[in-house]
Write a structure and sequence with these properties.
188 residues, mainly alpha, Tetracycline Repressor, domain 2, 0% strand
Length: 188
């Protein structure tokens, strides 16, 4: 396996472990074990856990950009694209019920730790906020676009927290349906 492929495996394993167990509760040994590397080989790729966290955040940002580009290609209208974001809580409901939102849980944990990488992790929310704001501006309410983007972000985070707390799929569906009805009021 090439060094690049090994590094990508490490980042993918760390991402999954940070999501499932938290950043603080995931050790080098956990990540190395998940990839099947010795500690020496592991340290060749990453010198610190923060370096892995930085790579995980960068990978999440790249994955999110690709997802947003795909949504723009697949959904012909701004409302349709915003619904793709809203429906992510349905698409990922099993993981969300078990672990919460991957972005929300990471930023919350880093905030509690007063971790230096909190701002870096917050770029994930900023990416969603900017994209949603652009979609709302295209939809029409330009002056309210950022406010509406924040409303949709708050919706997704609230649903993720409650889904994780109560494991209630009917709740998730009801909330997505309510958000869909609300969004229809902004369509021309």
């Amino acid at each position: 396996m090439t060094a690049v492929a090994t590094r990508e495996q490490i980042v993918a394993a760390a991402d999954r472990l940070f999501y499932h167990h938290g950043y603080e509760h995931t050790s080098f040994a956990d990540i190395a074990g998940a990839v099947g590397l010795s500690r020496g080989n592991f340290y060749y790729h990453f010198k610190s856990k923060d370096a892995i966290l930085d790579a995980v955040i960068d990978a999440r940002l790249a994955d999110t950009r690709r997802m947003l580009e795909r949504w723009e290609a697949e959904a012909p209208t701004p409302a349709g694209r915003i619904m793709r974001y809203v429906e992510i809580v349905l698409t990922n409901r099993a993981d969300i019920q078990d672990y919460g939102c991957p972005v929300g849980t990471l930023t919350t944990e880093l905030a509690k730790l007063e971790h230096a990488m909190l701002g870096q992790a917050g770029r994930l929310f900023t990416l969603f906020r900017t994209w949603l704001r652009e979609q709302f501006a295209l939809l029409g309410p330009v002056e309210q676009a950022d406010e509406l983007a924040m409303h949709v972000l708050a919706f997704s985070q609230g649903v993720a927290v409650m889904a994780n707390a109560f494991h209630d799929e009917a709740f998730i569906q009801r909330e997505v349906d309510r958000m869909r009805d609300w969004l229809h009021t902004y369509e021309r």
